[in-house]
Design a protein that fits this description.
Strand content: 5-15%
Structural class: alpha/beta
Strand order of the largest sheet: 7-4-1-2-3-8
Radius of gyration: 21 Å
Number of domains: 2
Order of helices and strands: EEHHHEHHHHHHHEHEEEHHEHH
Largest sheet: 6 strands, mixed
Number of helices: 15
Distance between the termini: 29 Å
CATH class of the largest domain: Alpha Beta
Helix content: 40-55%
């Protein structure tokens, strides 16, 4: 087996992490990048693209403010994508929250009645519909209040918070979409309430981001590999989860979509935290995820005047970029997620990786 020093190493950085709060208006998107690059190559690329850099650390947020740096950032991104293994994941946090609502406040009702709500991505289709037309069809601000009540109920798990969630569902125009809101609004379905109140069930998106990144790193790696990341407070949550994934030795495999499977035990062998000021490779992961999040904000009109989002996104090969955003191309969703094991994945991860244990 390769020694830790010679083992392939992916550097990771994240952006947009807001813990359990997926309704943060300032940070609509959350994501992370993993890139297999060493510090020597990273230092060379930084010298090539930013020869006059005086700062001790390459920080995307600082560099992107200067219009003159935008071409350099795009050229750096192009070199990284063409010469090094990498994957970037970006999710719309509001959509993810709606997807979680469908998973915990809708699906258990149907499961009790013998309906597989996950078959061929039905849950994604319903969550996409709710995200895109929920406020119009169910009423605004009632739909936003429902999502806030759901998020709070998952976090607090108290009778008061759970009752408030049912009341919030009843205040919407739920009769317009009874298949989605009926389980709570009509029945206050005990099976849904129990699912939401289950210890370990959380709206924290770190698990979702990591599942996607790790499934791609596992595919890209020929043998054992390791992960390094910055010492930020946000990444501590990621660090602890990655360590638990590494420690999980049960043999199991899940098909999540046409392009994603996840198999345990992982080839991932270790995870370490480093000071980003001393790791130019980690600094490049910061640049990559910064570009992707800015592109997502630009593409959706949340921010303007930044780097051209099309220029950023067009440089990715299909297998280098994963996104979780609503889609109303329901036929495509059905084909992409046909035969997936979404229900089994959710149950397995809730049982094995939720909570602090």
């Amino acid at each position: 087996m390769a020694s830790m020093g010679s083992m392939e190493c992916f550097r990771i950085d994240e952006s947009g992490y807001t813990g359990f709060d997926l309704l943060n208006r300032e940070q609509r998107f959350q994501g992370a990048t993993a890139i297999a690059i060493g510090d020597d190559d990273a230092a060379r690329l930084i010298r090539e693209h930013f020869p006059r850099l005086q700062a001790p650390e390459l920080k995307y947020r600082v560099l992107s403010r200067r219009h003159g740096n935008r071409g350099r950032l795009l050229a750096l991104q192009r070199d990284l994508l063409s010469d090094f293994k990498s994957v970037t994941y970006v999710c719309d946090k509001r959509f993810l929250l709606v997807l979680m609502f469908v998973d915990y406040a809708v699906e258990p009702f149907y499961y009790e009645r013998g309906v597989n709500f996950y078959a061929d991505g039905q849950n994604y289709s319903l969550a996409s519909l709710l995200t895109m037309v929920g406020a119009t069809v169910l009423g605004s601000p009632a739909f936003d209040q429902l999502l806030a009540a759901f998020q709070r109920a998952v976090k607090e798990k108290t009778p008061v918070a759970l009752n408030d969630l049912v009341a919030a569902a009843r205040r919407t125009n739920w009769r317009e979409l009874p298949e989605a809101l009926g389980p709570l609004a009509v029945y206050a379905a005990p099976e849904c309430i129990t699912a939401i109140a289950t210890p370990g069930v959380s709206t924290d998106a770190a698990m979702v981001v990591l599942q996607s990144l790790i499934s791609r790193m596992e595919l890209m790696s020929d043998g054992p590999y390791r992960v390094e990341h910055d010492q930020s407070k946000n990444l501590l949550t990621y660090h602890n989860l990655i360590q638990r994934f590494i420690d999980h030795k049960q043999v199991v495999e899940f098909r999540q979509s046409e392009i994603a499977t996840l198999k345990f035990p992982l080839k991932l062998a270790s995870v370490t935290q480093v000071d980003s000021t001393s790791s130019q490779a980690v600094q490049l992961a910061d640049v990559m995820i910064g570009l992707a999040i800015d592109a997502a904000n630009g593409l959706t009109g949340l921010r303007s005047g930044g780097i051209d989002p099309e220029a950023v996104l067009s440089q990715y090969a299909e297998n280098q970029f994963i996104h979780l955003v609503p889609s109303i191309d329901f036929d495509e969703q059905r084909r992409f997620r046909q035969g997936n094991q979404a229900a089994e994945v959710i149950d397995y991860f809730a049982a094995n990786f939720s909570g602090s244990g």
